Amino acid sequence: MMKKKKVIVIGAGFSGLSTATQLAEWGYDVEIFEKNEQAGGRARVFKEQGFVFDMGPSWYWMPDVFEKYFSTFGKKPSDYYDLKRLDPSYSVILSPTEVIDLPAKLEGIKLLFEGIESGASEKLDQFLEQASYKYRVGITNFVWKPSRKISEFLSLKLLIDLIQLDVFQSFYTHIRKYFKSETLLKIMEFPILFLGAISQNTPAMYSLMNYAEITMGTWYPMGGMHQIIKGMVQLAEEKGVKIHYNQEVLGFDIEDKKVKAIQLKEGKHYADAVIASADYHHVETLLGDNYRNYSEAYWDKRVMAPSSILFYLGVSKRLPKLKHHNLFFDRDFSIHSHEIYTEPAWPSDPLFYASAPSVTDPSIAPAGCENLFLLIPVAPNLTDSEEVRDKYFEQLMDRLESYCGTSIRDSILYKRSYAHKDFQKDYHAFKGNAYGLANTLMQTAILKPSLKNKRLKNLYYTGQLTVPGPGVPPALISGLVVAKELDKELKKV
Ligand SMILES: Cc1cc2nc3c(=O)[nH]c(=O)nc-3n(C[C@H](O)[C@H](O)[C@H](O)COP(=O)(O)OP(=O)(O)OC[C@H]3O[C@@H](n4cnc5c(N)ncnc54)[C@H](O)[C@@H]3O)c2cc1C
Fold first, then answer.
1. 246-263 pLDDT, tens digit each
2. Distance CA 167, CA 156 (A)
3. Residue 278: CB within 6 Å of ligand 1?
4. Cα 417 to ligand 1 centroid, rounded to whole Å
5. Which of 38, 225, 400, 470 could form a disulfide with 435 if both were Cys (CB 3.0 to 4.6 A apart)?
């Protein structure tokens, strides 16, 4: 029998698990080396005093991408977790007395829009019609491109698509052709924040995000987001992937323009090829100057998506005013975004996001308690300290208590904060970033860091710092795309 080719994957986040499972399905001998004690990467989980905290992602959008992922292996998401559609999808808090609940159904959203701005319901239909084209072309075609060569985009049909996708117009300009109300603009610009950039710098193509959110809904896997990871690990292991935890990759043995082995604290592991799903910049530092794709100067010029200050709180009472997802858009976002992107600084008076998944799922908090996750997007590369975290904690508590109309501080059973230093320590995150690279026009497709090392034939990259970009669905796609590229390469040999 022919010996199977061996592929090593660095990191067991969404992209690492995705690429490993695909390669194992195709008959490769695949091993993942993960530095942390569990799989999931930015989507890890921890349990304290009866609370189950998802550490990162909390929004389950684009259910079709998850279905496509599992169907690649003859499975369905429901083989691994139960999804619940949230209604309302989320709440937008404009002021303590002005709160908008976004209904799950399109008809409800149209009524809401019409009530805010006359004619907006029809405008929403028109907006969604073009956004549906962008979603179809974007998600079925563009995001699956490895983006290694411009020639991938040089067919007449693709060029026409590219123009119709509005790649060269900003989302900011695009959305203002449909709506005038500041409230509607806030609602429509919110999904763009997931792309790590402000709407002025985001191509209008990403109205596909609104299409996904409005027409396909906001979902939640019962038990928590890490149920997806649990399912993916089970599937990977069913396919024969071996996952090694607490095994940090420290360097590479390189010979004849190839990676021969990865170096660990306790020895080496040899492979025919390596896919790095760990943060791209970190892998570059492990390679050293002779073999990295990009210089420090290049990385320094990248527009990073924001980092975050996070608080995980176990509260000993219910907070009935909170929905599952709550966006505190009760401050001036132009000031906050200026402090993230233009003149990076700790925000003076930030917007924030509060997730209370225990509103939907009683299994993640003790009876009568609330499980809270608070997030402030902040610039990467800030010097984070306990004093800074404490200051923002007090600010958020003031606003949350005033909104909920009850004290919270005195009911906190468990509190943990998380920010830049933790992202660096746990994931080797460049500048302590949370979500990788921003999806600006100049960081799209072939302009993103390449998924292939240019000097080493058998080293590839996947994950949120390469194509197609940040977020869970893109990370799943990234893993599948790079597996295909590596498979082609290994079949040549
Ligand atoms: C707070 C937060 C909230 C988010 N919210 C959402 C959301 O609601 N919806 C959404 O779709 N997306 C969200 N995201 C983004 C999403 O979580 C990420 O884009 C996605 O999880 C990235 O997956 P990845 O595989 O690229 O990277 P990672 O998850 O970072 O995986 C990389 C893995 O490599 C490991 N590693 C690093 N260095 C080494 C080494 N030297 N040796 C071995 N292993 C190593 C790391 O430990 C990690 O496990 C959020 C992210 C954060 C941080």
1. 999 999 999 999 999 999
2. 16
3. yes
4. 18
5. 470
